[in-house]
What does this fold into?
Amino acid sequence: MKFSRVVKIIRGNKVTRTLAYPLDLICHHVLARITAAHPYRYPAHNHKWVYGRRMDLENPISLHEKIYWMLYCTDTSIWTELTDKVKVRSYIARMGYGNILNKVYATYDSLPDMNTLFTNAPRSFVVKTNHCGGGEGVYLVKNKEAVNKKRIYSGLKKVMKDKYGVRTGQPHYVGIKPQIIVERYLINEEDPTKALPDYKFFCFNGEPRLINLVGNRSIEEHTYLDHYYTMSWERIVYKEDESQDFPRPKSFDEMVQVARKLSSPFPFVRLDFYEVGGKPIFGEMTFTPGFDMFCGTYGDKILKLGNWIDLSGTKKIRELNPKFY
It folds into this structure.
């Protein structure tokens, strides 16, 4: 059985996830120390795991090689601003799309006391940090009177201290000052018991070319459906999967228009949206998406996603430091 499969099984079961928690903490601590001294090692390990070969940043070919070449060799100061889940809202508004921003109830520069956090929030809300990725530091509160407030508060306290950028070898996260955001809880009108589908547009040199749809997602249980669609909404089946296709969102054309404009300055960025009431709601901008197995199988071998990124106009401003490998 593949290691990735074992990890998914452990994370998908509450009992095994609880038992494995102490080991997970140790691994995070060790990983943070290693990556702080050798920033490339974390993404290099993931690249070899997904693509089956060592990451080559001297001659980048794959999607992630080109992404990390930009991260380590070019000016990515704007990435820090737009990865910050608070500051990116100003960019969205400046670009003329303030109407697609989710409602924010409160923003805290530091973690307030537990009573303040929950008393000032509505019955249902989402609370998260602005400086992490991959769903870390995100808590969905359907009914604040029925949740374990101490568990949520303890989790936020831990994440606020987490040096996510250092731990994962992503320096553009390092410059983000940790904050707490309390925002509107978005309800799936089709089925309130399920999370809203998350439409992730892979944009290359200002053109959306691929959609990753994450559906039926449970942040706590680490489970979800992972679909990919072409821009004509044809599903790309790259592994054995009997799950039904998701319908094309009603606001798809508007999502495409917004993604095209917001991504226009960048060789690559992923734009995430939700849909509520037939209208798009902005999720986030991601310049370094996770190492999904799709990228190393169908994406790299069939679609050649790396070829979709044109770096000819991207200026290299620094050399790689070999000791960091």
Remarks:
- The first helix runs from residue 3 to 11.
